[in-house]
């Protein structure tokens, strides 16, 4: 008796490969894939529920009432890295936006001086 694929019994632990056919997926691998898909769906659902609860809590909080600050102290370097402060103070844009709040500026020439 020869040991050829034709002579082996089904379920003998060998796999017969035929051109053009794909091998069936093992049941265990398919179960793992389904479990991962279900877990991913549950994780997305839980994330959506948490995000929804957080956004509802943020909307419920009333805005605190505060009075405007008496003074704003603005310190900056006199170089291009702090261009918005240079332009805003020289043209009066920052003081205009502050309204009644007093603007005090201080220019620093180096990091350790700040």
From TrEMBL:
Protein's organism: Paenarthrobacter nitroguajacolicus (Arthrobacter nitroguajacolicus)
Ranges annotated as biased composition (Polar residues): 1-15
Swiss-Prot/TrEMBL keywords: Membrane, Transmembrane, Transmembrane helix
Name of the protein described by the UniProt record: Sulfonate ABC transporter substrate-binding protein
Region (Disordered): 1-26
Domain of life the protein comes from: Bacteria
Transmembrane segments: 34-54
